[in-house]
Amino acid sequence: MATPRVVILDYGSGNLRSAERAVQRVGADVEVTADPHAALEADGLVVPGVGAFSACMEGLRSVSGEKIIGKRLAGGRPVLGICVGMQILFERGVEHGVETEGTGEWPGTVDRLEADVLPHMGWNTVRAPEDSRLFAGLDADTRFYFVHSYAVRTWELDSGLAGQQPKVTWANHGQDFVAAVENGPLWATQFHPEKSGDAGAHLLRNWLQTLA
Questions:
Q1: Each residue of 64-111: pLDDT tens digit?
Q2: Which fold has domain 5-94+108-209?
Q3: Which one of 120, 173, 192, 202 is the catalytic residue?
Q4: Active site includes 130?
Q5: What positions does the domain Glutamine amidotransferase occupy (predicted)?
Q6: What is the Cα 5 distance to its own chain's centre?
Q7: Annotated catalytic residue 192
Q8: pLDDT tens-digit map of 109-140
Q9: Cβ-count burial of 143 within 10 angstroms (0-12 exposed, 13-18 middle, 19+ buried)?
Q10: Which of 20, 56, 66, 83 is the catalytic position?
Q11: Catalytic choice (20, 105, 182, 194)
Q12: Cβ neighbours of 2 (radius 10 Å)
């Protein structure tokens, strides 16, 4: 089997080098770039993201990242969003009363969690569907590393990309929120697999196996 080629999309946001090292570690040939041709031609595209929703969207649009994501998905080409890189896949984000338009790949709103302690920072378990490919081989008590104050709290899409029913994974911090999604070629996690040790590496390896 040929080594999968993965691009980490460089749009000015995200832990680019830690994501690069994590994906390399599980067996991919990785390039960090904003070059549209490389991003479109790679076997897999990772969209990272940290910080404010609005700033991430501004950076993403500056490199036509929303168009790159859309073109890849239209061709059934895998995309993995991480943290705010997951959040910007939804229709909108609301921070401090300001609404920002997302890429709109999924319906829904990213807004502030209702919890006694924010940010939600540290290790937490998730509730994945039994037939999840992303979490295959991982125990139910496996913990992943989260750093966020905003999340999607309701899932609004019934039918998914490529005619497949979306698989939604949940976590809880004060209230339930979407922790991960598998929707045809578009997968995403609210937590950071690149900061989640062996569990994160296992999850990234599961994603790489879909690129063949």
A1: 999 999 999 999 999 999 999 999 999 999 998 899 999 999 999 999
A2: Rossmann fold (3.40.50)
A3: 192
A4: no
A5: 7-208
A6: 18
A7: yes
A8: 999 999 999 999 999 999 999 999 999 999 99
A9: middle
A10: 83
A11: 194
A12: 8
